[in-house]
Amino acid sequence: MTSAPKPGDCERALAMCPSLAAILPELRLYEQLLRRWQKTINLIAPGTLDQIWTRHFADSAQVQAVAPEARLWADLGSGAGFPGLVTALLLKDAPGVVVHLIESDQRKAAFLRAVSRETAAPAQIHVGRIEDILADLSPAPEAISARALAPLTGLVDMMRLSLEKRAIGVFLKGADWRNELTLASAKDNVTYRTIDSRTDPDARLIIVGRS
Q1: Domain at 59-210, CATH from 2.40.50.140, 3.40.50.2300, 3.40.50.300, 3.40.50.150
Q2: Which of 46, 54, 43, 47 shows the shortest CA–CA distance to 13?
Q3: pTM of the full predicted structure?
Q4: In sequence order, what DSSP letters do the residues of the chain get, joined into one string?
Q5: β-strand 204-210 against 190-196: which pairing, if any?
Q6: Res. 195 pLDDT band, cuts 50 70 90
Q7: What are the pLDDT digits (tens) for 10-39?
Q8: Residue pLDDT, tens place only, 82-108
């Protein structure tokens, strides 16, 4: 008796985050561009190239699901667009959406512009210092995301002004999330809650708000 074939990376990602099914054509184009640009720019860890759908697309899709009503997002240190560009694609048909992608590397910003243009994502790309750009955004973002950018304490400091304007933070954290949360929890007037990751049993999404 032969065993059933194992599902591919795309199929596993769709099982983890069914919302991705609505933007499959855009994500396939995104994947093509990512693989092409990866040959000259280190956008993602090379070892994750064969897991783009689960490690990057599905992982990112969790963020938008935490704050489904938010229409104004800022993504810090966007890099290859995770999670911010996936958030923009998931919201591309909703009215009034703007996802600000903040990236200091000019080459990565050029990649973000290329993907945004080809997929018609409602994203605006900013190059510069995160705190300065966040302070200048108008209207202020309702939700702020980041992945693999800085420890939780640093992320809270970056979005301090946004917290005062009642934005929430949605941050993807790996296996060390408990230690990061312990260090960050000493900050005054800030609340934290965690959500289990759909893509990694050791990871969590940490939601930051103002008390």
Answers
A1: 3.40.50.150
A2: 54
A3: 0.94
A4: -PPPPPP-HHHHHHHH-GGGGGGHHHHHHHHHHHHHHHTTS--S-GGGGGGIIIIIIIHHHHHHHHSTT--EEEEES-TTTTTHHHHHHHTTTSTT-EEEEE-S-HHHHHHHHHHHHHHT--EEEE-S-HHHHHHH-SSPPSEEEEESSS-HHHHHHHTHHHHHTT-EEEEEE-TTHHHHHHHHTTSTTEEEEEEE-SS-TT-EEEEEEE-
A5: antiparallel
A6: very high
A7: 999 999 999 999 999 999 999 999 999 999
A8: 999 999 999 999 999 999 999 999 999
Q: Give the CA-trace dihedral at 196, 200, 203, 205, to 10 degrees.
A: -50
Report strand pairing: 98-102 vs 168-173. unpaired
91: which 2 tokens? Answer: 């919201």
Q: Is the alpha carbon torsion for 159, 206, 114, 26 positive or negative?
A: negative
